[in-house]
UniProtKB/TrEMBL annotation:
Keywords, sorted A to Z: Cytoplasm, Iron, Iron-sulfur, Leucine-rich repeat, Metal-binding, Nucleus, Repeat, Ubl conjugation, Ubl conjugation pathway
Cofactor entry: [2Fe-2S] cluster
Name this polypeptide is given: F-box/LRR-repeat protein 5
Superkingdom in the source lineage: Eukaryota
Pathway, per record: Protein modification; protein ubiquitination
PANTHER family, alphabetized: F-BOX_LRR-REPEAT PROTEIN 5 (PTHR13318:SF19), PARTNER OF PAIRED, ISOFORM B-RELATED (PTHR13318)
Ranges for domain F-box: 211-244
Keyword Chaperone: no
UniProt cross-references to SUPFAM superfamilies, sorted A to Z: F-box domain (SSF81383), RNI-like (SSF52047)
Domain Hemerythrin-like: 8-138
Location(s) in or outside the cell: Cytoplasm, Perinuclear region; Nucleus
Length: 625
């Protein structure tokens, strides 16, 4: 049967909403922990509000549609029942007021599941019957203008009697009644797809995706509710390249590529965000909904809760499907963003190029999914501004994830394996001479390739000392030769060509890189997949980062594409660490290089200095002024 004209189709629009509610309570039913009293009561309250809306819908149909049809068609009567709604409402009221113990909750949950399943099996065919039986009868017994008036009245009644404080404003923020006409039309023709499937299937999927590409995330979520084929289409990877969950949770459905990253939000926005975080942290998870409404911070708590639900929903339902297609992920200023969430997201989005975690509460644990070489070779932009729990461990993970450019040079690998065979070894008599080879087992251990090889190189970097090659070359004393011969100095220094100098430096001149090796292998990155294309890195306010982390970033080929580097508020880095990192960043723009004014580092006259001066929410060495 072909769809009826939109102007006189009185059932499809309201039924779209009812079917949506059925899907929502079915999803919540599978996710609710009925042994938890808070989850149990929250679900029952939501379900009670849903069934009250069902009851309201049936009453509107009885009064404004069915009663008129019975008057016109005298042979028809008593043809519209409440479909067990009254029984369900009584069951829900009983659960809220009478169930007390955990044992009673579990027994009640089993009964509720059975009753909900029976209701759903009855309610959905009931709506289909109305559309396929009652609508043709209306077309037969009413004029076109009369049906238009009936539809207008039905839609108006649904809008005015909608209980907004209950089931309407859920995770995906659907607002049916403000877009009733559009949604009615979309759902109606999608429901009709069974009879016109062959014709509809000729509409190329690429063309559909192009059309959906003009929609925002909220509208895509609406489309996914239409039918299974639309749901699959709405989860096309190309439609979800740029994710802004924190903004979406606050009603801003921007989904274009990231804009200017240098612009900080105003003070008012930051204060509201701080209030939101504080209110959410202090909020009692076991408090009833009514109690939170009485609290002055209820709006902030509600926003934070919505953000958390949205993030969890994206991680569980969206990213497993579209994760490999995600290019931009902006979680800046998220009040509920956790390290666990970020770790899950990064494991599902291996091709992300733009990652913004500004002013979030993440720790090193967030990057544990970057535990192998090349885990995120596409990353070009990383903003960790204000993430004051980040330490050197995160930078080691980052360096591994960006890839290993040294793997492109077989001659260099062979030379490094030979150098590793000459290692420091402490025995009963103290330190051995550094030029005495280790035993066979140790030598074999040092020749391992892959992940262990790279990680040990990073560990070695920490053990040799914190000074760059220039400073180490001037060391004197009994252990100076050991340091020179233990490890090839240029492996731990990113300088393109180590300094010529006094006689002490001549000890390791022969192990210096050749002119060919000093060139950055940017044009060969595609050969092995080790790209290291990071061009923006901000560690502003990450005061726990030290030279060890900077040295890790300068390893494995350095950062040949890095143009923007912000180390404002990194109080523990030194001049030597800065020089070592900068020497591994040949493309660095000194105007976009920020570090503490108290350090006499590279580009001292042209670098932009510290950005955190008089900043109230990020670390700065002069914050006491």
């Amino acid at each position: 049967m072909a769809p009826f004209p939109d102007e006189v189709d009185v059932f499809t629009g309201p039924h779209w909403r009812m079917k949506q509610l059925v899907g929502l309570y079915s999803e919540k039913l599978s996710e609710t922990n009925f042994s938890n009293i808070s989850d149990f009561r929250s679900f029952l309250k939501s379900l009670l509000a849903t069934f009250k809306e069902f009851k309201m819908h049936e009453q509107i149909e009885n009064e404004y549609i069915i009663s008129l049809l019975e008057e016109r068609c005298c042979t028809v009567y008593n043809m519209h029942s409440d479909n067990k709604l009254s029984d369900m409402l009584l069951l829900l009221e009983k659960g809220l007021h009478n169930v007390k113990s955990e044992y009673e909750q579990l027994n009640y949950a089993q009964q509720l599941k059975e009753r909900l399943e029976a209701f759903t099996q009855d309610f959905l065919p009931h709506m289909k019957e109305e559309e396929e039986v009652f609508q043709p009868m209306l077309m037969q017994h009413f004029t076109y203008e009369e049906l238009k008036a009936i539809k207008k009245q039905v839609m108006a009644q649904h809008c005015t009697q909608q209980p907004w404080n209950c089931a309407a404003d859920v995770l995906k923020g659907f607002r049916l009644w403000s877009h009733a006409e559009e949604l009615q039309k979309a759902f109606k023709y999608a429901d009709h797809e069974k009879t016109d499937y062959a014709k509809n299937n000729n509409f190329v999927g690429k063309q559909k995706s192009t059309i959906l590409g003009y929609l925002g995330p909220q509208d895509l979520c609406r489309c996914s509710q239409v039918c299974s084929s639309w749901s699959e289409l709405a989860k096309t990877g190309s439609l979800w390249k740029h994710l802004y969950p924190v903004r979406w949770a606050r009603g801003d459905y921007y989904n274009s590529p990231p804009g200017d990253s240098d612009q900080e939000p105003d003070d008012g926005w930051l204060k509201s965000r701080e209030k939101e975080v504080r209110a959410y942290q202090e909020w009692d998870e076991d408090a009833d909904i009514d109690e939170s409404d009485e609290c002055g911070d209820s709006l902030a708590i509600s926003t934070a809760q919505r953000e958390k639900r949205l993030l969890n929903g994206i991680i569980q339902n969206l990213l497993p499907v579209v994760g490999p297609h995600v290019k931009s992920l902006v979680l800046a200023y998220g009040s509920t963003v956790s390290s666990k969430m970020v770790r899950q997201i990064l494991s599902l989005c291996p091709n992300v190029t733009y990652l913004d975690l500004t002013q979030t509460d993440v720790t090193d644990f967030a990057f544990d999914s970057w535990s192998y070489v090349g885990a995120c070779t596409s990353l070009e932009h990383l903003d960790l501004s204000g993430c004051d729990k980040i330490t050197d461990h995160a930078l080691k993970r980052l360096s591994l994830a960006l890839g290993d450019l040294n793997a492109l040079w077989p001659s260099r690998r062979r030379r490094q394996r030979r150098q590793r065979a000459v290692i420091l070894k402490q025995g009963a008599g103290g330190w051995r001479p550094a030029w005495v080879p280790a035993d066979i087992e140790d030598s074999a251990e040092w020749t391992r390739r892959g992940r262990e090889e790279v990680e040990k190189r990073l560990v070695e970097t920490q053990l040799v000392g914190s000074l760059c090659c220039c400073s180490r070359g001037r060391r004197t004393g009994p252990d100076a030769a050991i340091l020179h011969y233990a490890v090839s100095t240029d492996r731990f220094c990113a300088h393109a060509a180590c300094c010529n100098g006094d006689s002490g430096e001549a000890l390791w001149t022969n192990s210096r890189r050749s002119p060919v090796d000093t060139k950055c292998p940017v044009n060969r990155t595609n050969k092995s997949g080790a790209r290291r294309v990071l061009n923006f890195l901000s560690l502003s306010g990450c005061y726990q980062v030290t030279d060890v982390g900077l040295r890790a970033m300068s390893e494995l080929g350095g950062l040949p594409a890095l143009e923007h580097l912000n180390l404002s508020g990194c109080l523990s880095v030194t001049e030597a660490g800065l020089h070592q990192l900068v020497s591994a960043c040949p493309a660095l723009n000194d105007e976009h290089f920020y570090y503490c004014d108290n350090i006499n580092g590279p580009y001292a006259d042209t670098a932009s200095g510290c950005q955190n001066l008089q900043c109230g929410f990020r670390a700065c060495c002069r914050s006491g002024e």
